[in-house]
Amino acid sequence: MVETRKVQVTGGSTFTVSIPKDWATGNDVGAGTRVEFHPEGDSLILTPVSEAERTEGSLDVAGLEGEELRRAVMTMYVSGFDVISFEADRITTDQRRTIRQATQSLVGLEVLEETADRMVVRDLLDSSELSIHNAVDRMRLIASSMLDDAVEALATGDGDLAADVIQRDDDVDRLYMVVSRIFRATLRSPTAAEELGLPREVCFDYHSSARQLERVADHATKIAHLSRELEGTPPEEVTESLRELHGAAATVIEDAMAALVADGNDEAIRLANGARERVQEIDASAREIDELLRDLDPARAQLLGLIVDSLTRSADYGGNVAETALQKAAPTP
Questions:
Q1: Are 278 and 248 in contact (CB under 8 A)?
Q2: What angle do CA 151, 262, 211 make, to 5 degrees?
Q3: Contacts with 254 (C-beta within 8 Å, 6 or more apart), sequence order
Q4: At the fourth CATH level, which superfamily is domain 130-329?
Q5: How far apart are the first and last CA of the chain?
Q6: How many CB atoms lie within 10 A of CB 213?
Q7: CATH 2.10.109.10 correct for 56-123
C-alpha cells in the first residue's frame, strides 16, 4: 500500500516529512534511531543505519548430505552472510568434508571454527573492494578461452586440453557466485551500490550477462567431454565447418560484451545489433553442418550434432548479452 506525506517547512528553511508508523515499527526505527538517505536520480531511499559490521547467519544442516548440503553452503554465501554457522546435534564426518569442500570452492571463505555440533565459516573479503565489472570481465576471458580450447581439442584429438577445459569450469562458477553475491548485496542495501560506484540497474545488467557467460562455459565443458568420447578426429570438411561456426559464435560473444561495457550508447547499439544479426547467420550455418553429418556413422553424427548445438547455443547466449546491452543503452524513463 502506497502512503503519501506532505513535505513541511520548519524553522524557516528545513524540509521535514513524517515516516509511516508501520514501516518504522517493522524496522525497529524509533526516537533516536539514526537513518541514512541515499539519492538515486529523482528518488530518495531511506534505510536504518546498521550497527553490525558483519552479517551473521545460521543453518540447521541435520539431514542434509552431499549435493544438497553443498548447494545450501553456496546459497548462504550468495545471500550475503559474512559469518555462517552450520549446526546440528552432531555434524558427521561426511558433512564436514562437504562443507569444507564447498567453502574452498568459493572466493574469500574459510573455516573459522569447528566443534562437534557446529562449523563456522567466514568471508574474509571486504565487499567494498570487490569489482563486479572485473569479475564479469574475468568470466568473459575464461569462458571464451574454454570455448576456443574445447574446439581445438576436438579438432586435434587432444585429450589433455579437453581435460583442462573441464577443470576451468570451476573458475567460472566461482566467479559467478561472487557476481551473484555482489548483486544481491546491492538489492538489500543502497550503500553497497554506492561503494561499487555503479547504479543498481547496471549491476543487474552485469549479473544477467554473467549468467549467460556461465552457460557458455558449461557448453564449452560439454564440447570437451564429447570430444573425449569421439573416436579420432572429425572429417576435415566437418572440422573446418566447426571452426568457422566457433569463430562466428566467439565474435558474437566478444561484440556483445564490448557493447555491454561501451562508453557511448551509439557504439553499444552498433555492436549489439551486429551481434544479434550474426546469431541468425549462425543458425543457418549450423543447419548446413547438420547436412554434412548425415553421411557419417550415426553414433559419430550424433556426438558431432551435439557439439554443433552447443556452439549455436553459445552464440544465442551472446545474443542475450547483446539484448541486455541494448536495454542498458536505451534512454532512461
A1: yes
A2: 50
A3: 140, 144
A4: Phosphate transport system protein phou homolog 2; domain 2 (1.20.58.220)
A5: 23
A6: 29
A7: no
Q: What is the pTM of this model?
A: 0.80
**207 is written with which cell numbers?**
549479473
- Give the dihedral of Cα atoms 292, 297, 302, 306; nearest 10 deg: -50
Q: Fill in the amino acid letter for 141.
A: L
Cα angle, residue 136 at apex, residues 130 and 140 outer, rounded to 5°: 145
| Domain positions in the chain | 8-48, 56-123, 130-329
Q: Which helix (H) or strand (E) holds 63?
A: none
Alpha-carbon span 84 to 61, nearest angstrom: 12
Tell me the pLDDT of the chain (333 aa) as tens digits. Answer: 666 666 655 555 556 666 776 666 666 666 556 666 656 655 666 566 555 456 889 999 999 999 999 999 999 999 888 899 999 999 999 999 999 999 988 988 888 889 999 999 998 876 556 789 999 999 999 999 999 999 999 999 999 999 999 999 999 999 999 999 999 988 887 777 777 788 888 999 999 999 999 999 999 999 999 999 998 899 999 999 999 999 999 999 999 999 999 988 999 999 999 999 999 999 999 999 999 999 899 999 999 999 999 999 999 999 999 999 999 998 776
Alpha carbon distance 270, 120 (integer Å): 50
- For the four alpha carbons of 240, 245, 251 and 253, in that order, the dihedral sign comes to negative
- As a whole number of angstroms, the distance between CA 112 and CA 103 comes to 11
What is d(CA 313, CA 315) in angstroms, rounded to the nearest whole number?
5
User: What phi and psi, each to the nearest 5 degrees, are found at residue 110?
Assistant: -150, 155
